[in-house]
Amino acid sequence: GWPDKTPDLAYFYPTDVLVTAYDIIFFWVARMIFSGMEHTKQIPFHTVFIHGLVRDAQGRKMSKSLGNGIDPLEMIETYGADALRLNMVMGNSPGNDMRFYVERCEAMRNFANKIWNASRFLMMHLTIEKNELPEHLEIEDKWVLTQLSSLIPEVTDNIEKFELGIAAGKIYDFIWNSYCDWYIELAKTRLTQEDGDSAIRAQQVLCYVLTETLKLLHPFMPFITEEIWQALPHEGNTLMASSWPVQDPELLFPAEAADMERVMDIIRAVRSRRAEMNVPPSRKARLIIVTQNGNAYRQCEAFISRLGYASQIEIQTDGPSSTDGMVTTVTPDAQLFLPLNELVDLEIERKRIEKEMKKAKTDLDVLDKKLGNPSFLSKAPERVISAERERAEKLKSLLAGLEERAHQMK
Predict the structure, then answer these.
(1) Which of 296, 124, 150, 306 minimizes the C-alpha distance to 206?
(2) pTM for the whole thing?
(3) Going by fewer Cβ within 10 Å, which terminus of the chain is more open, N or C?
(4) d(CA 187, CA 189)
């Protein structure tokens, strides 16, 4: 309607934020400011968010002559619009160019699948019709609500500062790790047990946390979040028109969250130690926890037993009188002991370790001769010599670990 004063002109001018790449600041941004000031005496926007260029995987600018452009419609057809959007956001840091890797689109599609499968899992167990939190919360509920309540102001602050990649990364980590890999696993037992009240409360927390997280993720992945939100108990017509999440101080439980983190540390430590020894999950073993903070673990024995593959849990303030035949590992709050004979077949493990030690010693002898050869040291490039020395150090470290394991076997 310009130069007439119309409702459209009053609504759309001036605007708030202009998003542009750095290569057209002079050709486009500056001229819009000059033109707007000349004709309306008002600045056209108060903020200019300058981002980098999208380059190909080799760092070259996309151009017709090189034929290295990416057709977004093809990417959307293959991986989905949400996956493409999140790839562009998470690969972006303000002002810097980014390289476009098709593999990252595949990773973002896998993330979309993770959200979809988590939602499907919830829908399979969902019997509630209203999205609200229960009055009584278990320790794992308080932990995930504390995680969510801490996430909300951080993401909000990042978005307001245009740190979009950081904001999206935090939401990604929360959904993948805190919600899917931990909380859903912790809630599974309650969803299938006979205690109906506990199952309902688990549903309520799962549904509430997922809904609030979908709101945070919606600006980045609008299609899948809207689709899932419509299938969950909700108020209002669309997720897009819902209010932005705000931190509720009453949903912060720092003490319980800290206790839950201690329990998770133990589960991670036990799993890591078992993985190092190639112990399958089906092989259960007794777990001795030596700590001065036993109450935190006693209320979560069921979790530790199920997720740490423990046949029996003993919580003590003093360690065992003898650690012979024990596999040990530590967390910041506890020492953990597992009987070796319950983890592995000792005879088979001895033979395996002896075989590994023999190979490591042979490889180390070859390297030592090579590094002791003056001809090699004088002719080989420095980077090659450094790489061989690094290999030798790794082999020495491996041998030390194997010798310690062999000693434990005795």
Answers:
(1) 124
(2) 0.82
(3) C
(4) 6
